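User: Can you predict the 3D structure for this chain?
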Amino acid sequence: MLLSLMFLGCASEVSIDIDADKDGLLGSEETELGTDPDAADSDGDGADDGLELESNTDPLDGGEYPYKGGWEIDSCRSDITGEGFGEGETSDDFALSDQFGQEVHLYSFCNRVVYLVFAAFW
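Assistant: Here is the predicted structure, written as structure tokens:
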């Protein structure tokens, strides 16, 4: 009799934070970010929200997603401003296609050495 009263006295509502859409983000994290906790890919760009966050891309911007080639995108890319094209100056951002046909932006590789090869065949 005492045992059953203890169980009744301890009964309370328990809230468990889960990853319902299996995108790597808990429901509370999705609420804080503004992403859809019931959809793995909130912006419909083909990349799960958790992967986008991990890759320093915006899970709410359908035009921004991790590069297919696995190129790491650095988080400082939005803090850069172009100065010019002279030696020692920061270039304006530009994009080129990689070997996978995906547009890759120079500023995605901030704090890394970028080696560009330009060639012409006559």
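DSSP finds three helices and two strands in the chain. The radius of gyration is 23 Å.
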